[in-house]
Write a structure and sequence with these properties.
Blueprint (H helix, E strand, L loop, with lengths): L31 E5 L9 H5 L5 E3 L5 E4 L9 H5 L9 E5 L3
Antiparallel strand pairs: 1-4, 2-3
The protein binds iron/sulfur cluster (SF4) (2 copies).
Length: 98
């Protein structure tokens, strides 16, 4: 298996060895992308806990710093779980620009 191969290079119905999810960059699945606004973030870590792709990034102080779009597949769970209020959202989903 090549390093950082795309998921489209897998055979239909193929399986991959356990512990290799990091090798498959699923960012091109997205039709929408989460956009992070640091000034509205209250550092609750809900997005980091719930993201199924570990695509929420932390900075050197262990605070949420953004999204790793190589792996974010745009599921929107981080947006749903983020507790910030409507007019001060820390994460909002936007249409993906291809
Ligand atoms: S949209 Fe989904 S995959 Fe992307 S950062 Fe949010 S929870 Fe993770
Ligand atoms: S869920 Fe929202 S408020 Fe909480 S750390 Fe993530 S972006 Fe910040």
């Amino acid at each position: 298996m090549k390093k950082n191969m795309g998921w489209k290079e897998l055979w239909h119905g193929d399986s991959v060895p356990a512990g290799t999810a990091k090798e498959f960059q699923t960012g091109d699945w997205r039709s929408e992308r989460p956009v992070f606004c640091a000034e509205n973030c209250i550092h609750c870590y809900f997005c980091w806990i719930y993201c199924p792709d570990s695509a929420i990034t932390l900075d050197e102080n262990k605070k949420v710093s953004g999204i790793d779009y190589r792996y974010c597949k745009g599921c929107g769970i981080c947006d749903v779980e983020c507790p910030t209020k409507k007019d001060k959202r820390a994460i909002t989903m936007e249409a993906e620009r291809k």
